[in-house]
Design goal:
Layout lengths: L5 E5 L4 E7 L5 E8 H10 L4 E5 L4 H10 L3 E5 L1 H4 L9 H12 L12 H32 L12 H9 L6 H34 L1 H6 L6 H11 L9 H7 L4 E3 L8 E4 L5 H19 L8 H9 L2 H22 L8 H7 L2
Parallel strand pairs: 1-4, 4-5
Antiparallel strand pairs: 1-2, 2-3, 6-7
Length: 347
């Protein structure tokens, strides 16, 4: 076999398609491997560059191949798709990966460690448990309304609602039993959420950068933890605007023929992180509109006078992302007195 300088690998749960080229960019390897054959093949193969898409299980395989001496480059799937020729199959995908990796300007996804994957699993579990709690709370509200019981908004009103229902002996026995099942499930979900949030807060307190980011108004411990866990590497971004664009907080660009035409935000990047920043911004704006915020930014006050609150929340989330990027890069501590200049320098 000729010397392979680059391999594109299309991954799946059980079947892996390889496409390798030599120094003349001629294909010298087209091979399909089963999962159990991967370790032996790459152990015998001389160290080379291997590329595959950043997807489920990719970080695991990246760590395995790095241990064997290979250089791993994970590519964003949306950047690989333009290199796929006609037809959609594993061989074409592997060839497209090999071609995309040869581009000098191609962006690379950093490989996460097992500890980083565990931290992401923690926040993912918290999101899932909160969604389950919301779904269960809505079901309880819907069923209780059929028997004339209602409650105010907010999850804190669910347990009192269930207590009132359990004390009503006029309800059918079957309904009371089913509400009791819902109550036990809700209490169990709430306990699991508290356990996960306790571990998340412990992780936040142990990370120095996360503690600094939590000082930014509108971020808090959860937002700071997500910024640290989900940001691949702050130094990969040239500016705060690039970081905000990666989060999907910048407008879509439809400019052509010298005419600038900007649309809504792109919504690219991680949805959970973007949502957390926007929710934090919305909470901060509510305090300002209610007159409870001290030292409110004149920029925010003027924006609220001229623009809809939701638009201002997204703009504020954009600015928070830029400030957070600057703090992660420089190691600076947030100072409310210099927030304006800091935000401007992060642009």
């Amino acid at each position: 076999m000729e010397q392979i300088i680059r391999i594109g690998m299309d991954t799946s749960k059980h079947v892996f398609q390889l496409h390798g080229v030599n120094a003349a960019e001629q294909p010298v390897l087209r091979k399909k491997l089963r999962r159990k054959e991967m370790q032996d093949f790459f152990t015998k193969l001389p160290p080379t560059v291997v590329a595959f898409e950043a997807c489920g299980g990719s970080h695991y395989w990246a760590r395995q191949l790095q241990r064997l001496g290979h250089e791993v480059k994970m590519l964003p799937p949306q950047y690989v798709k333009p290199y796929v020729k006609r037809g959609k199959n594993d061989a074409a995908d592997a060839e497209a990966l090999c071609e995309a990796m040869s581009r000098p300007t191609m962006r690379i996804v950093p490989v996460k460690t097992a500890e980083q994957q565990a931290a992401l699993m923690l926040v993912g579990m918290r999101d899932r448990l909160i969604r389950n709690r919301t779904q269960l709370a809505n079901a309880i509200r819907g069923y209780s309304a059929e028997f004339g019981y209602t409650a105010a908004k907010g999850v804190r009103h669910i347990v009192p609602l269930l207590d009132r229902i359990s004390a009503d002996e006029t309800l059918p026995e079957m309904a009371r039993d089913l509400f009791a099942i819902h109550a036990r499930e809700y209490v169990q979900l709430q306990a699991e959420i508290e356990k996960v949030e306790t571990r998340l807060m412990a992780w936040h307190r142990a990370d120095e950068c996360s503690r600094r980011l939590a000082q930014i108004p509108g971020v808090g411990p959860i937002g700071a933890s997500l910024l640290i866990m989900k940001t691949p590497a702050p130094e990969l971004f040239r500016s705060g605007r690039d970081f905000a664009a990666w989060l999907g907080l910048t407008p879509k660009d439809h400019s052509t023929a010298g005419k600038v035409k900007l649309g809504v935000i792109t919504r690219a990047g991680d949805e959970a992180l973007r949502r957390t920043l926007v929710v934090g911004s919305t909470s901060l704006l509510q305090q300002i509109r209610a007159g409870r915020a001290r030292n409110a930014s004149p920029w925010l006050v003027n924006m609220l006078r001229r623009k809809p609150p939701k638009l201002v929340a997204v703009a504020l989330a954009n600015k928070i992302a830029r400030i957070a990027w600057k703090m992660m890069i420089t190691g600076a501590v947030y100072n409310s007195r210099s927030a304006g200049p800091a935000a401007a320098s992060a642009i």
